[in-house]
Every structure is written in structure tokens, then in C-alpha cells.
Amino acid sequence: MKKLLSVLAVGLLVLGSCSKGGHYKVVATFADNSADGDTAYLTSYDSGDTLATGVVKDKFVVIEGDVDGSFMSRLLVAGKRFGFIVEPGEISIMCNEGKVTGTPLNDKMKALEDELEAIESSAANDTAEAAMLVVEKKMKDCFYKAYEQNKDNGIGPWAFNYYLMYNEFSAAQIDSLLNSAPKSYRDLKRVQKAINAARQLEITAEGKRFADFAAPTGEKLSDYAGQGKYTLVDFWASWCGPCRREIPNIKKLYEKFSAKMNFVGVAVWDEPNDTHTAMKDMAIPWPVMEGGKNWTEPTDLYGISGIPHIMLIDPQGMIVARGLAGDDLIKTVESLNL
Q: Which residue has the higher pLDDT, 189 or 128?
């Protein structure tokens, strides 16, 4: 399962002529004065650009301005982040509760996130592959329905982005989907990234030679892959629940086949200290390449938009399988008859 994130923003891009412009006011409130003096940043989730700022005083901060239509954004303040839709009206953020209220689209977004969380939690105690597939199908359907119903407001691009993330579409398939989307969607950085990822997926598909990369420490994937043994590569992060749930499966394989094949982890999008703590807590015995929280080269190279992503490479360096997990992972490795 891919981790459910908060919102996708699109900067100040107008997403539909149906929405009327007007004045917006964001009021973020804290339960105490601990954040007083901190700067709050209203940012674009899509580009990461800062759109406006404010300073916390007497437990709250106000950021306001004019907006043409609606767009998705993120407020960064006091080490926390809150996703919401900027639209005309007063938007209230209760920072200690993570609660956003006050305008129609934010209320609609909250209902949609509740629906998605209910779908995801429906299989929380069922790790069977069939159950997980049912959940992913429901998530995909929910994202697509939300996109179709909100093409011309700020929810649409968010839903479209996650619909792409939950499907391994080819670049041609994404282009076909964009033909029926508002023209502005093609300019979204998240959509452009999805197209590039699809192209990289094709370049590094099963049957293709593995693409090498190096960690900032100088360690390379080719130190393990293409060295005369099968190699299992696990792209993961300490904060990723599904990643951690796959570790026991990899451990079973490691205990059985470590003398006959190579194992290597690739810690992406993660702080090194968190990676080290997770490795210790889970007693991970295989080497792990790491590059820090902003290390995206491995996932960009392989077109990976969600983790865990487990890959199997043959002794000559050809990719045998990608996206392995659970019983499928174990069966695939065991079928090699090592």
C-alpha cells in the first residue's frame, strides 16, 4: 500500500473558471505560546514555492490575500505541516488537532480524506495479498471519482495526482488521460514527474539491465548487483509502515539464501539517524545504502513513486522482477531454485 499523504497543491495556478475569486484568510491557532515568534509559510505542495508568510503571535498566525479560483496548499509552521485548500473565505486551522475547517472545499476534502482512511484501515488486520489488492482497487476508484467530480476546483489535481500514483501507467496512458483533463493539468510539476517516472519505468522494466547509482558515501548499487549472484534490492524508509512490514519477509529469505544471493537495502526519503534506528530496532543484517531525506536519485531513476519497492536482479545484472511484496516476493525468490 502506498502511504496516504495529505494534499497536492498547485501554487497560484487557476484550476477552473467555474470558481469565483475573492479574499481568503487563513487563521492557524495553537493551544499554547510555544510557537510564538515562529514564521509560518504558505507553500505550494506542487512546486514547493513559498506563496506567503506570517509570524505566530499570541498563539495564532494570520495569512490572507486574494485568490482567483482555488488551489491546494500546505502551511509549514513550528515543525508541522498542514494541507488544505486555499479558496475565498476564512479557513481555520487548529494546529494541535490538525483540523482544518471553514470553507466548502475544505469540508469536502475532509470528508474525502475520511473516506480514504476508512478504506485503508479496512484491511489493517488483514495482510493477505488478496485483501490488499481489494483495498488498492477501492482507493483507485475513490481517487478517480474525486477527480471526475472536482476537475475544475482545487481537489481535482490532488485526486488526479494520487490516481496516477496508485496506477503504473505508461507515459502514453497518462497523456491519454490528460486529453480529457483541464489543460492546466499538463503544467503541474507532479504530473510532469509522473510522466517522467512512467518513462523511467519503461527503461528499467523487467528484462532490462539494472541502472546503477551511487550513494553520497560512494557506495554503488553495482557493488552488489551484476556480480554473479541474484540480488534483492529493497527501496524503503524508516517512517514507512508497509516497508517495515516487508522486512520480516526479506529476513526469511535472507536466512535461507544469504550465502547464495546478495541483499541490499536502499533507504530513500529518510534521515540517516532514523534509518540507523530502524535498522537496529528491526535487526536488519544486510547492508543499506543511504543518502538522506532529499535523496531521490534512486527512485527517480527507477520511476518509483511509492515504497516499499522490492526488485530482483539476476547474476548478469538483468532485472527479473519489480514491485515484489508478501507471498509473491517469497514465491518468486524460492522459484529460482538456488
A: 189
